[in-house]
Specification:
Organism: Jutongia huaianensis
Number of strands: 0
InterPro entries: DUF1266
Protein name: DUF1266 domain-containing protein
Pfam family, one: DUF1266
Distance between the termini: 44 Å
Largest sheet: none
Oligomer: single chain
Shape: globular
Length: 316
């Protein structure tokens, strides 16, 4: 009863202030127009043939598919890991984007944000809200939702839809695919090298492979997470950034070649192949803290990680 009362109170008092905040957290997810910060080597990247990732591993193929829609939104080449050439101009642009949208200004910041998405991400708030929502009876839920409108109502409609559709898997691909966005931008920004950018994807790719059966499910989970975090109605009949992203995915699917598919479902039948030269664990060793320091830094670190607008911005 206490949890039910808490949830209804949140709705009636408007604790979940949207249009910048998701739930009662500081996780900002927005979609804005391009600001001119995007790398400028799109034409050069598109003219390249073949792949630039490590051929001894399939992590590059996983990473390209995980980040393909967002790379395409920014006129990058989704078949080329990173989307753009690693030029000085693109390095500067990528660093500006990571700083403005994620509060990332160093290699350490990048690795910490990747670890946050891997271990926590937006899933923590979603699961808490979904649990409270499930504790309500249908009558209580209807009564509570009748008290709200606008972005707040959209948020709870999305929460209900995602909870019914995905259950505990809700927002999983949303968090894990953003690791690919950060890995690719981090590579262009020269915070990590090409092998390292693929290595940080190993646990996220492995988790996606185990929890989903195909790329349709992964992309749909990512899209629903985007809608949840951006207060965009999932079931809206109007054209939105959500429907635009759906269309981009369908376009990429229709244009991919059988001999070189971008969204290759055969990846789900194969084991994840590590690089052998560097690993996720070895990279995370760089940002390990002592138990005492960890306890002190946990709250401050998590707060900082959740404040980024994240790579769902078109400027990324």
């Amino acid at each position: 009863m206490k949890k039910k009362h808490c949830f209804i109170t949140w709705i009636l008092t408007g604790c979940l202030i949207l249009g910048g905040l998701t739930g009662c957290s500081n996780d900002k997810q927005t979609s804005t127009d391009r600001s001119g910060n995007s790398p400028q080597s799109t034409q050069a990247a598109e003219s390249m043939t073949g792949h630039n990732e490590n051929e001894n591993s399939n992590l590059g193929a996983w990473g390209r598919a995980m980040g393909a829609v967002l790379i395409s939104i920014n006129d990058g080449n989704p078949y080329y890991f990173g989307g753009y050439e690693a030029t000085d101009a693109n390095k500067k642009a990528a660093r500006n984007i990571l700083k403005s949208s994620w509060n990332i200004s160093s290699r350490k910041d990048l690795l910490k944000q990747i670890r946050f998405l891997q271990n926590t991400g937006s899933r923590k708030d979603y699961r808490r809200e979904a649990k409270d929502l499930k504790a309500l009876s249908a009558r209580e839920r209807k009564k509570a939702l009748n008290q709200v409108s606008g972005a707040l109502k959209t948020h709870y409609n999305n929460l209900q839809y995602i909870s019914d559709t995905w259950g505990k898997k809700g927002l999983l691909a949303w968090d894990l695919c953003r690791i690919s966005h950060l890995a690719q931008w981090g590579y262009i920004a020269d915070y990590i090298n090409l092998d390292e950018a693929q290595a940080v994807l190993e646990p996220s790719a492995s988790r996606l492979r185990k929890r989903f059966d195909n790329w349709d499910d992964i992309v749909n989970n990512w899209l629903d997470g985007y809608a949840y975090s951006s207060a965009i109605e999932i079931r809206s009949i109007e054209k939105t950034d959500y429907t635009s992203r759906q269309e981009i995915y369908q376009k990429l699917l229709s244009e991919q070649k059988d001999t070189d598919p971008l969204f290759d479902n055969k990846l789900f039948e194969e084991d994840i192949i590590p690089l052998g030269t560097v690993s996720y664990d070895s990279l995370m060793e760089e940002i390990k803290t002592t138990p005492k320091a960890k306890k002190k830094q946990n709250k401050a670190s998590e707060k900082k990680m959740s404040q980024g607008k994240d790579s769902e911005e078109k400027t990324q």
